């Protein structure tokens, strides 16, 4: 892998498009817009630069795997699929349509989705099974599991770290979207996670903590894979919930959003730095 | 052939098989040395084991997973339902000490709702062998079937030689006009004794070993309820959701009714003790079953019930 990232501009352009897709999906029923925006950059980076996944190898056993355990940020994944040619852009308009399978959590009927999710704390173990099989077969595929920081409340995430460490799964990378929020609360106000780096280190993982919105930082971290022979890789990506939309950034009450048409129009302008949006739609929506 | 011998033979001859356990090695003691890295012990993590089994199945493997019945079906329930059930992956659950077989452990270890829970999961198949011979006869078909499965492992030895297994079919041992006992699992042994007593008392008695609880042999149930004056359901399971419920569902589906006497745990866990004491205390010995059906005491001598040889 190249050590210097030469296409930062292109990655940023792709991420901007992905954010547009996310905003467009946050109406007519809405979606988990804040968590999707926080994970957008790292998902764009992983599919553009790190993972051996493309439209022609989706069933190839030698492909890399990405499991989205915090499934509610799937608009970021579908937006990325659309921009990288895995999914027809037009199909994103089917969000929540009864005639398609694009809804608030991932479904394997969408090409590129490796496993369904929605119930937190499940995919770390599923990813372990895949990583174990790759080890047994002597393969070189990489396996990524993206988890939310709130998701780390679930005990099975920590079970998975214990087991992955015991089995020396250095082909497995847990990526934490550390956006500081879980649903409607700041993580540190409810169930504090810090010092998170130390927790994973104490559980036997090799850990890197980076700015999850910097493509250079993402590249530097993932270029070092595998971080340490025989150790589970963990990347804590510090991110901002709602990144790209100042009117909802870091707001506990803007978790699940169902914006009206005017808000969507204004938010798209806000994304491009042209506007500040007056939000009028309901907050603290629970889905 | 024992469970472990069969599993070893199949796993060695077919690379797809992975043997897993959540640190419960009673059924697979010699397998680690024979299977190498296709044996995976995840430690006391039933949920993680099931998730990992799903991941292995995604890669084309057939994981046969082992844990105590109560933890496999209840602690890991959502993982079984969500990670094996929804994607319909061939994760093969081998549940250790189900029902009365948890004898002295107490209610934490009593899986007496496992059939109800597992058969409620779409795509899941559910089986309960009468003894080791029955178990070994059914497993090759269950493990080669493309769906997730749940098997109440029962390695008790009896003298009974079972007929060949057919998935979804019950084993009809005998037909009778007066009474037919429908049962599965470890109580088959007691049912045989009950049948003997009832026959001595002059009744025409049928006996059906259900074997496959999902898919269930509807015709065997309908035949028994149509042809006998009394149908008995006999199970070491809660009254809710097990065989009694299955029979009710089948009858209702066909707009039928029948006289059904259930032997099951009604809104209670069983009193923990060694297996023979448990069976006696709860009224599930062959003699007690027969006498309850007859409504009077007999002179029959109940054969001794052996204590299970395994431990955790």
Fraction of residues in helix of chain A: 25-40%
Termini separation of chain B comes to 21 Å
For the sheet with most strands of chain A, the description reads: 5 strands, parallel
Residue ranges of chain A: pLDDT <50 for 5 or more in a row? Answer: none
Main sheet summary of chain B = 7 strands, mixed
CATH topology of chain A: Rossmann fold
Q: Which series of helices and strands of chain A comes N to C?
A: HHEHHEHEEEHHEHEH
Overall tally of structural domains of chain A: 1
Count of separate structural domains of chain B: 2
Taking all residues together, what is the mean pLDDT of chain A?
Answer: 96
Question: Can you identify the CATH class of the largest domain in chain B?
Answer: Alpha Beta
CATH superfamily of chain A: Thiamin diphosphate (ThDP)-binding fold, Pyr/PP domains
For this entry, give a set of tags.
heterodimer; A: 287 residues; alpha/beta; Rossmann fold; five-stranded parallel beta sheet; two-stranded antiparallel ribbon; 9 helices; 7 strands; B: 312 residues; seven-stranded mixed beta sheet; 19% strand; globular
Could you characterize the architecture of this molecule?
- The complex is a heterodimer of chains A (287) and B (312).
- Chain A is of the alpha/beta class and 287 residues long.
- Chain A has one domain: Thiamin diphosphate (ThDP)-binding fold, Pyr/PP domains (Rossmann fold).
- Chain A is built from nine helices and seven strands.
- Chain A has a five-stranded parallel beta sheet, sandwiched between helices.
- The longest helix of chain A has 18 residues, at 33-50.
- Chain B is of the alpha/beta class and 312 residues long.
- Chain B folds into two domains: 3-152, Thiamin diphosphate (ThDP)-binding fold, Pyr/PP domains (Rossmann fold, 3-Layer(aba) Sandwich), CATH 3.40.50.970; 171-294, Rossmann fold (3-Layer(aba) Sandwich).
- Chain B is built from twelve helices and twelve strands.
- Chain B has a seven-stranded mixed beta sheet, sandwiched between helices.
- The longest helix of chain B is centred in the first third of the chain and has 13 residues, at 46-58.
- The model of chain B has no long low-confidence stretch (mean pLDDT 97).
- Chains A and B meet through helix 4 and helix 5 of A and helix 3 and helix 5 of B.
């Amino acid at each position: 892998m190249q050590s210097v990232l030469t296409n930062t501009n292109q990655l940023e352009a792709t991420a901007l498009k992905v954010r547009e897709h996310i905003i467009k999906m946050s109406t007519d029923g809405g979606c988990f817009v804040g968590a999707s925006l926080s994970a957008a950059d790292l998902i764009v980076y992983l599919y553009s630069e790190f993972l051996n996944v493309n439209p022609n190898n989706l069933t190839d056993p030698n492909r890399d795997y990405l499991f989205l355990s915090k499934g509610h940020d799937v608009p970021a994944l579908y937006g990325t699929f659309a921009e990288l040619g895995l999914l027809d852009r037009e199909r994103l308009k089917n969000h929540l349509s009864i005639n398609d399978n694009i809804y608030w959590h991932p479904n394997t009927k969408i090409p590129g989705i490796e496993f369904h999710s929605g119930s937190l704390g499940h995919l770390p173990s599923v990813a372990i099974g895949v990583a174990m099989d790759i080890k047994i077969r002597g393969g070189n595929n990489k396996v990524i599991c993206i988890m939310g920081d709130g998701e780390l409340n679930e005990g099975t995430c920590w079970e998975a770290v214990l087991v992955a460490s015991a089995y020396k799964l250095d082909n497995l990378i847990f990526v934490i979207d550390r956006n500081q929020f879980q649903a409607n609360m700041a993580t540190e106000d409810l169930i504090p996670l810090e010092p998170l780096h130390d927790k994973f280190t104490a559980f036997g993982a090799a850990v890197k903590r980076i700015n999850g919105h910097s493509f250079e930082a993402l590249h530097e971290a993932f270029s070092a894979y595998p971080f340490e022979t025989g150790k589970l890789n963990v990347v804590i990506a510090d991110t901002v919930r709602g990144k790209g939309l100042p009117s909802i950034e870091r707001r506990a009450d803007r978790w699940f959003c169902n914006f009206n048409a005017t808000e969507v129009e204004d938010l798209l302008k806000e994304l491009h730095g042209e506007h500040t949006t007056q939000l009028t739609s309901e907050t603290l929506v629970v889905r | 052939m024992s469970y472990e011998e069969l599993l070893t033979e199949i796993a060695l001859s077919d690379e797809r098989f992975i043997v897993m356990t959540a640190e419960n090695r009673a059924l697979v003691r010699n397998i680690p040395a024979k299977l190498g890295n296709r044996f995976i012990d995840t430690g006391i993590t039933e949920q993680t084991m099931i998730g990992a089994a799903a991941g292995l199945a995604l890669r084309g493997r057939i994981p046969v997973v082992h844990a105590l019945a109560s933890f496999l079906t209840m602690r890991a329930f959502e993982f079984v339902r969500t990670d094996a059930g929804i994607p319909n992956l061939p994760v093969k659950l081998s549940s250790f000490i189900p029902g009365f077989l948890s004898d002295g452990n107490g209610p934490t270890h009593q899986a007496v709702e496992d059939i109800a829970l597992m058969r409620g999961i779409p795509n899941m198949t559910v089986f309960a062998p009468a003894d080791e011979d029955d178990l070994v006869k059914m497993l090759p078909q269950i493990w080669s079937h493309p769906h997730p499965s749940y098997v109440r492992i029962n390695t008790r030895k009896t003298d009974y030689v079972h007929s060949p297994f057919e998935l979804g079919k019950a084993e009809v041992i005998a037909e009778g006009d007066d009474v037919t006992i429908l049962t599965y699992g470890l109580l088959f042994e007691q049912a045989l004794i009950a049948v003997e007593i009832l026959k001595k008392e002059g009744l025409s008695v049928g006996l059906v070993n259900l074997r496959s609880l999902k898919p269930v042999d509807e015709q065997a149930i309908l035949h028994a309820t149509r042809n006998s004056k009394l149908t008995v359901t006999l199970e070491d399971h809660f009254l809710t959701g097990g065989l009694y419920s299955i029979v009710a569902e089948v009858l209702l589906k066909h707009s039928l009714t029948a006289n059904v006497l259930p032997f099951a745990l009604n809104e209670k866990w069983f009193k923990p003790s060694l297996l023979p004491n448990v069976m006696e205390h709860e009224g599930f010995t062959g003699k007690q079953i027969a006498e309850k059906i007859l409504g009077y005491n007999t002179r029959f001598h109940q054969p001794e019930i052996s204590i299970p040889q395994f431990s955790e």
